[in-house]
Amino acid sequence: MNNSNLSYSLEALRVKSLFYGKRAMVYVEGDEDLNFWEPYFDKNIFHIENVGGSSNLIPYIDKLNNGEDSFIVACDADYSSFKQDNTIKSDLIVTTYGHSIENMMYCPSNLNAAVRKLSKSLKESTVTIESWYEKFVFTAHPLLLREICNQIYKPQETKVQVFGDNCARFCKQKPCYELDEGLIDKFCNENQENFPNEVLDRIDTAIKEDGRAERQLIKGHFLTYAVRNLVSFLAESTNSTKTKCNISNGYLYALTVHCEDCGNNTCLEKMHILKCVTKAIEKVKLVE
Fold it and tell me: How far apart are CA 187 and CA 153, in angstroms?
């Protein structure tokens, strides 16, 4: 069931899970979030529903922030931690560790596993992927500053698209998984008046104080184009026949939605989500 607005009365919301034979609802943003969040919630107790977009989650988040305790929201953290008035105030709102689910899906270990599956090889690519990330994140830093400025400080009508939904317009033609510093410099220069230096400096300080790796802060959808091309390139390079490998966004999602190394207790993303989910399950009021 897909709802574009919170048309249910509060009383109906509190018992909606009974319709599915469950004891509580978990609301997520979109289709791709369903499979990501599903392993964290007991299927015998919780029914997970996609509400059809992040804006449609807002009424649910508002109700939880105002004290409602009959359901859970699981969503991307976005840049909520950079806001002075953090929009995440309820323990029943479970968020990702990084900006979005893709930041966890695209960890180096998981991308290495995807390359090995595609190439039918046991060759390790983790070090290569980590080196790529280091260069990508460094080059994307000016864009990250401006993206956070957009999301936190600028009203909707004055926003200039920065990250958008993919990084293709900022990438080199060859290799197409690397960012082009010239294109980024051109964008920053052309939009200088939209992003005051004092605000960018404030954001730069906040990023340094944040504690998370900077790759965790880059919008997940922005990463997808480059990650997909990198995985394809590495799979072609490591398979014995050098067979051409082109994968779609959907196939990349299928390969990475669940990280094979997430049983590892050192995975910060997994530990963060498990901690948030545990707290939410303790606080949610289950239908008897």
Answer: 19
